[in-house]
Design brief:
The complex is a heterodimer of chains A (about 230) and B (about 425). Chain A is an alpha/beta fold and about 230 residues long. Chain A is about 40% helix and about 20% strand. Chain A folds into 2 domains: about 1-120, Rossmann fold (3-Layer(aba) Sandwich), CATH 3.40.50; about 125-225, Arc Repressor Mutant, subunit A (Orthogonal Bundle), CATH 1.10.10.10. Chain A has 8 helices and 12 strands. In chain A, the strands form 3 sheets. Chain A has a 5-stranded parallel β-sheet with strand order 2-1-3-4-5, sandwiched between helices. The radius of gyration of chain A is 19 Å and the shape is elongated. The two termini of chain A are about 20 Å apart. By secondary structure, chain B is of the alpha+beta class. Chain B folds into 3 domains: about 1-120, no CATH class; about 180-270, Helix Hairpins; about 275-425, Histidine kinase-like ATPase, C-terminal domain (Heat Shock Protein 90), CATH 3.30.565.10. Helix content of chain B is about 50%, strand content about 20%. A 5-stranded antiparallel β-sheet of chain B has the order 1-2-5-4-3. A 5-stranded mixed β-sheet of chain B has the order 7-9-10-12-11, with helices on one face. In chain B, strands 6-8 form a two-stranded antiparallel ribbon. The longest helix of chain B is centred in the middle third of the chain and has 50 residues, at about 180-230. The chains are: A alpha/beta (about 230), B alpha+beta (about 425). At the A-B interface, helix 1, helix 7 and helix 8 of A face helix 4, helix 5, helix 6 and helix 7 of B.
């Protein structure tokens, strides 16, 4: 899939490109609004990531142009200027999502996938993990056709997030940013992820052993799928 | 007041003193009159053949004049109170004695005025003076009243509207206090200018925090991305990854502080809309779902007793969620193992009051006034992984929604946070 990154911070674009390429995206980068405007008018993209704080261009104007010339593209606004007004304006102008800096690259990918799923209504997606089946559409887990009961929304979110980033170790802070990202609070080092994982394991263990859910000692957690 | 009392007490003494001086003057004048007569008409007018002269008026013997040959050879010129025997009556007089020479002879002149007569005038004088004084006191009080209710009214208005109850940031434009006194107008405009200065300083501080936290977001974002990318690489050893994790933890701390400061500054700059309607019980349930894992960790019982029909109008749901989340989070954080939290809704004076009571370590009475200050960390707070911005968030959000917060706490027994919602948010 083609991604256009419009962002004037070179160091940040480097990392975004690195990450997205590793996840099989084709990236083009614009460091200013003028070139981005040209590219948007001539090329077709699947994703357009726009930083609102461009030095030469009003980011929201760029969004309008994107909607005009690239109506199929998924537009995500990235900004450090998290003014509430901008967020509303951006979404009104047709942005598909809004990520305020600093954001996790994993979160960016997760949003991109979620929008794609939403937009194109991907076929019923069920992922098999050993004898467990994770139904991403209906947000449920089953074991050999037996529904696993008691999985909370948060717990399912964690499993789905790890599944999306399968075979990759996710740190506790990456996981907690995903499930508690919108809460602004006083703690900066929450270990509640451990408690959640413990609960998930307990609930799954009542049916079978979830050996695909690995604790990576000292680092975090990962879901392993051998393809 | 002290002056008035002192004056009343001193009044008799003063009047007596004035009266005596007046009498003495009168005596001197009489003396001068007699001496003048003696000089012009000769001593013979009064004394013939060395026979003493005496005269007193009326039956009451209020005054008398006497002149006699004086045998003593000394100068006398005194005024004293003395007793004299006049026609069988002993009367207390104030007497001027004066001796003088005519030819070769010494004469002694005495002029007297009875003390009773003097006192007779003293008493009415004292009374008059007292009445005048009383009148003056009354007049002063009246004048004061007039002064403070009418003349000083603009001053009171300036104090009431411009000084007391002044809230920052300034939302209403400058309104002149109506006064015809130029001094008050000057005071009014001076206070206004002072407030403007304070206001702009506040504004600058807010802008600074806002800009600083915004500016920090991009570098933090870059660092976070770099760490994430490095962490995902297969060729990096777990040992290095553990170091990266520490790095990430520190970065998270920086991120949380910056995000929180930004949130507070956005609230203070009123960048949030208040157009949500929220069911309080549902909101509490959402917080509960979000936070239940923390309750579970410490085995804390959380009871919610709030009427299901409490709706809050014109609020910001995101902010209210964060307000309650932070309060409940604190109630967990500073609670004991197996403790409990009671969330109770009470309708008091037609206002929703939400109480969050915990069985935690409590707050020192002397620390209580400072708990809403930014970056205030207390030695008692056992948790090391907080940076003292939880309650400042709560305070900013509460102020934004005009929610009053009351805190009470007993050390080692627990704390109670009361949220009093404004009557018009129902």
């Amino acid at each position: 899939m083609n991604v256009l990154i419009v962002e004037d911070e070179k160091a940040l674009t480097t990392e975004m490109e690195l990450f997205l390429q590793a996840n099989n995206f084709l990236c083009e980068i614009c460091y200013n609004g003028a070139t981005a405007s040209e590219k948007i008018a001539t090329n077709l993209y699947d994703f357009i990531l726009i930083d609102l704080g461009l030095p030469d261009y009003e980011g929201l104007d760029l969004l309008k142009e994107a909607k005009k010339y690239n109506p199929e593209a998924t537009c995500i606004i990235l900004t450090a200027r998290a003014a509430v007004d901008d967020r509303i304006k951006g979404l009104d102008l047709g942005a598909d999502d809004y990520l305020s800096k600093p954001f996790s690259l994993l979160e960016l990918q997760s949003r991109m996938q979620a929008i794609t799923r939403r937009k194109f209504g991907l076929k019923h997606s069920v992922v098999a993990l050993g004898d467990f089946n994770i139904d991403l559409t209906n947000r449920s887990i089953s074991y050999k056709d037996l529904p696993v009961s008691g999985i909370t929304k948060k717990e399912f979110d964690l499993v789905a997030y790890m599944l999306l980033h399968k075979n990759r170790t996710l740190t506790r802070s990456q996981l907690s940013e995903h499930i508690w990202g919108s809460v602004v609070n006083d703690d900066y080092d929450s270990n509640y992820i451990d408690a959640h994982i413990k609960n998930i394991r307990k609930k799954l263990n009542a049916y079978g052993t979830p050996d695909w859910l690995e604790t990576v000692r000292g680092l975090g957690y990962r879901i392993n799928i051998n393809s | 007041m002290v002056i008035v009392v002192l004056f009343v007490l001193l009044l008799p003494v003063l009047i007596r003193d004035i009266n005596r001086k007046y009498t003495d003057n009168w005596l001197h004048r009489q003396k001068d009159k007699v001496l003048k007569t003696v000089r012009s008409q000769g001593i013979e007018k009064y004394i013939q053949n060395d026979e003493g002269f005496g005269s007193y008026n009326t039956l009451l013997k209020e005054e008398y004049v006497s002149m006699d040959v004086d045998s003593a050879d000394r100068k006398i010129d005194t005024i004293v109170n003395e007793r004299r025997l006049v026609e069988g009556d002993t009367i207390q007089y104030r007497i001027l004695s004066h001796n003088f020479k005519v030819g070769k002879k010494n004469y002694l002149l005495e002029i007297g005025k009875s003390i009773d007569t003097i006192n007779e005038t003293t008493t009415p004088l004292q009374n008059i003076a007292f009445e005048i004084l009383l009148g003056m006191v009354l007049l002063t009080i009246l004048a004061d009243q007039f002064y403070s209710t009418y003349v000083l009214r603009p001053l009171g208005r300036i104090i009431r509207t411009k000084l007391i109850g002044h809230k920052f940031p300034l939302k209403t434009p400058y309104r002149k206090v109506h006064t015809s006194t130029s001094d008050f107008a000057y005071l009014d405009i001076s206070i206004h200018k002072m407030i403007q200065t304070i206001e702009s300083t506040f504004q600058k501080e807010r802008e600074f925090i806002s800009n600083a936290s915004h500016e920090l977001m991009t570098p933090i974002s870059i660092m976070q991305s770099k760490i994430e990318n490095m962490f995902g690489r297969e060729d990096i050893s777990d040992e290095v990854k553990e170091r990266l994790l520490e790095f990430q933890r520190i970065l998270n701390r920086l991120k949380s502080i910056t995000k929180t400061l930004l949130l507070i500054s956005q609230i203070e700059n009123e960048q949030f809309l208040k157009d949500d309607s929220v069911n309080l019980l549902e909101l509490l349930q959402e917080v509960y779902d979000e936070i239940s894992i923390r309750l579970q960790e410490k085995n804390i019982q959380c009871n919610i007793d709030v009427p299901a029909d409490w709706e809050l109008e014109q609020v910001n749901k995101f902010l209210l969620f964060n307000l309650i989340f932070n309060l409940v989070n604190n109630a967990i954080k500073y609670n004991k193992e197996n403790g409990s939290i009671d969330i109770v809704g009470k309708l008091t004076n037609k206002q929703y009051v939400l109480e969050i009571n915990d069985t935690g370590i409590g707050i020192d009475a002397e620390q209580l006034p400072h708990i809403f200050n930014r970056f205030k960390k207390f030695s008692k707070s056992l948790q090391q992984d907080s940076f003292g911005l939880g309650l400042p968030i709560v305070k900013s959000i509460a102020e934004f929604h005009r929610i009053k917060i009351e805190v009470s706490s007993d050390l080692n027994i627990g704390s109670s946070f009361k949220l009093i919602f404004p009557a018009d948010s129902l």
